[in-house]
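Holo model, dTDP-4-keto-6-deoxyglucose. Inputs:
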Amino acid sequence: MATPSLIQLVDIPQRGDARGGLSVAEIGGALPFPVRRVYWIHGTAPSVSRGFHAHKKLHQLCVCVAGSVRLSLFDGRREESVVLDSSAKGLLVGPGLWREMHDFSPDCVLVVFADAEYDEADYIRDRDQFISHVHSS
Ligand code: T46
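Output:
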């Protein structure tokens, strides 16, 4: 059986018209969970990388609504990456995945929908600790 990809992309319905774009993320559509927090990452220089952590429980949907960014995911065994450059695609990132963000375009705006409030205790910020965590669970 084929190994499932770490990259889970969802289509975001596009409801734009001649006046401009309009993208919709709603429960029953692109969002597979009730949203309890939204944050957005912007103004990150192309030379800067972010992330370098995993979450124990958090589920998120990442949508690049302007510009582009490369997200890489590592499950403790395999690493896969994807360039997000469209508000018509979202990347689902669940728990147990080490994530890194690279190659931000200067105009990148990455919007992230999360199923829980911010909780530093949910982060694993040490890569070796992450690898021990996934291999013991
Ligand atoms: C993730 C990737 C994709 C808060 O106070 N509240 C928040 O909701 C968030 C997200 C962050 N913060 C604080 C924690 C740090 O002091 O903001 C600071 C920067 O956060 P961090 O270094 O974790 O940012 P990134 O860009 O490395 O990671 C973020 C999310 O934290 C993370 O959950 O999956 O984006």
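The mean pLDDT is 97. The chain is about 5% helix and 40% strand.
Archived with the compound record.
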